[in-house]
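Quick one:
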Amino acid sequence: MLQTTVTLISSLEHQIATGRQRLQELYDARGYTDSTVLAVSIELDDLLNSYEKLQKNGIFSATR
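Output:
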């Protein structure tokens, strides 16, 4: 279970980093009102919420 949790955390961290980079690139190219920028922003919010939920549930204390 611990390995699965570590893998999940690592995957989320990678997805968040990739999402932030993609969002910044889209924002720079299209501005903040573009529908694609807004959709990517929502996806990133969902990833960040999942990551925060893991933190609040104490998962990080067992893996870090």
